Hints:
Layout: E1 8-11, E2 23-26, E3 36-45, H1 48-54, E4 71-78, E5 90-93, E6 96-98, H2 104-107, E7 119-120, E8 139-143, E9 147-149, H3 156-159, H4 165-175, E10 183-187, H5 191-202, E11 207-212, H6 218-224, E12 228-231, H7 237-240, E13 245-250, H8 259-264, E14 266-274, H9 288-291, E15 296-299, H10 305-318, E16 324-328, H11 332-340, E17 347-351, H12 353-360
Parallel strand pairs: 10-11, 10-13, 11-12, 13-14, 14-15, 16-17
Antiparallel strand pairs: 1-2, 3-4, 3-8, 3-17, 4-5, 5-9, 6-7
NADP nicotinamide-adenine-dinucleotide phosphate binds next to helix 1, helix 4 and helix 5.
Organism: Hyaloscypha variabilis (strain UAMH 11265 / GT02V1 / F)
GO molecular function: alcohol dehydrogenase (NADP+) activity; zinc ion binding
Protein name: alcohol dehydrogenase (NADP(+))
Amino acid sequence: MSASYKFQGWLGLDKDSVKGKMEWKEYEPKTWTEDDVDIKITHCGICGSDLHTLRSGWGPTLYPCCVGHEIVGTAVKVGKNVKHFKVGDRVGVGAQSSSCLDCEECAAGMEHYCSKGNVGTYNGKYPDGSKSYGGYADYCRAPAHFAVKIPDGISSAEAAPMMCGGVTVWSPLVKNGAGPGKRIGIVGVGGLGHFGLLWAKALGCDEVVAISRTYSKKEDAMKMGATKFIATEEKGWNKTNSRSLDLIISTVSSPKMPIAQYFQLLRTNGQFIQVGAPEDAIPSFNAFALIMKGVKFGGSAIGSPADIAEMLAFAAKHKVHPFIQERPLKDANQAVIDMDNGNARYRYVLVNEKHAAEEKA
Ligand code: NAP
Ligand code: ZN
């Protein structure tokens, strides 16, 4: 039975697409299997990774490419093998849409670190050779293992940016002990960083410190739950605040970061986790910055479907509300330009207005 809908969305055709030149076109989704779901998209967040990919910043992008991996909508076709949701349910897909489900990592519930068949929700290729296409679109087809049911307590617009931005900071916070007794620093008050502040506050951390380049986001950061704000434009910020934090999550998307000074903020045995993914190498630093305080320097990628489900349940229970700005899907090109200019406060969410209206009706 052929689907009664078309797969069409905003396609980046070359590097210039990031400058507001995506084109609305039809494309071929992955080959259907009974493990898949077709989602009628109502909302999709704009993640910093969408921009890196549109401009081929991390290496050559597989154009045509439809970005968007903070997808929420209604399941309209569900494969026979899928047991965890049904047609009509509200589901979301984050930055990963497939893995081998067999390797050591997948077996341990770390599908996002799959060592054999990790496929991104866009700009990826499934084992059968078909391409993955993301959420700046009307519909998305993906393996249902990577689609998570959205709890009733969260609106679709608010759930969308949690699918990638939210879980990317949720996971390293929770896995590294964020909670009562801990002093947390979040570097970069952007889409990911603002979630870092919201989660750290809701997790009951003693101190939640926002570390930003300027003071312009201070008022908002305090509303998100920051107990303190450090602006790195202020002379001596690293000395004034040295040895004050147990765990720092850095969401900085540019290689131009004062990393050695960030380390100064850590207490003995502190941890620094980089989640921001700059296009160029991050600055070098002296090994003694780590050695002399027993500091651990690490990284973290998104989260597993189970991590996403856990985060959504927490957000519903603790009534965590992201700071979002809704933009009509038809204006996706302008929204991408605005995101690139650093204007998002703090996550743009594209709204497929026709589908969103039908869902409400
Ligand atoms: P975003 O909303 O643009 O936020 C990035 C923040 O980085 C900015 O708000 C800014 O914060 C800070 N920043 C930018 N340039 C800087 C500079 N030169 N020096 C210091 N800070 C700077 O982007 P996002 O969606 O949060 O994504 C952030 C990064 O995470 C991107 O690289 C994205 O690809 C990556 N990412 C990684 C994963 C993962 O799995 N690890 C998942 C999703 C996204 P201030 O204005 O407060 O200084
Ligand atoms: Zn993302």
